[in-house]
């Protein structure tokens, strides 16, 4: 008597795949989708409120006024800084050569101002800084200013 080899019988494709990889995944139901959407909206509203209400730190702004290059080893940068009179700021000043390479760099500390020092309550002050340079500079300017957090 001959018997059939059970491994040789072909199973339907869906049964074979389900046995190998598991059954089909069910999609989220209507309630689950709605709850996920509501949770996402609430998280977005909370994040927006946090960003809007977060206290911002003191600000500082700067404006380049001018520069001069006395020789190949020295340049001067003139700039103004606007900040809270009681705050201390630091400004990075740079000198550039004709190929826009940095040939001089300096951090300038701008301390608290007397509120009577200027017409705007001591907020805006004018500064001149001397930069030592490696070669002839064709410009000097403020790269960035920030409030010193110590």
Short description:
The chain is of the alpha+beta class.
Tally of separate domains: 2
Arithmetic mean pLDDT: 86
What letter string, H or E per element, gives the SSE order? HHEEEEEE
Rg is 34 Å
Q: How would you describe the shape? A: elongated
Q: Give start-end ranges of low-pLDDT stretches.
A: none
Largest sheet: 3 strands, antiparallel
Strand order of the largest sheet: 1-2-5
CATH class of the largest domain: Mainly Beta
Give the helix tally: 2
How much of the polypeptide forms β-strand, as a percent range?
A: 35-45%
Q: Which characteristics define this entry?
A:
2 domains, three-stranded antiparallel beta sheet, 2 helices, 22% helix, elongated
Walk me through the structure.
The chain is an alpha+beta fold and 150 residues long. The chain has 2 domains: 26-55; 60-147, Immunoglobulin-like. The protein is built from 2 helices and 6 strands; from the N terminus they run ααββββββ. Strands 1-2-5 form a 3-stranded antiparallel sheet, with no helix packed on it. Strands 4-3-6 form a 3-stranded antiparallel sheet, with no helix packed on it. The radius of gyration is 34 Å and the shape is elongated. It starts with 12 loop residues before the first helix and ends with a strand.
């Amino acid at each position: 008597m001959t018997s059939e080899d059970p491994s040789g019988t072909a199973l339907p494709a869906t049964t074979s795949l389900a046995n190998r990889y598991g059954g089909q995944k069910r999609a989220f139901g209507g309630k689950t989708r709605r709850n996920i959407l509501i949770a996402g909206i609430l998280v977005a509203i909370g994040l927006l409120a946090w960003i809007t209400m977060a206290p911002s730190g003191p600000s500082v702004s700067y404006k380049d006024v001018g520069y001069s290059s006395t020789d190949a080893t020295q340049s001067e940068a003139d700039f103004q800084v606007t900040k809270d009179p009681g705050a201390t700021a630091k400004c990075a000043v740079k000198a550039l050569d004709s190929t826009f390479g940095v040939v001089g760099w300096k951090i300038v500390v701008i301390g608290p101002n007397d509120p009577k020092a200027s017409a705007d309550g001591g907020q805006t002050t004018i500064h001149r800084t001397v930069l030592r340079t490696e070669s002839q500079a064709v410009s000097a300017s403020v790269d960035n200013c920030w409030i010193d957090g110590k």
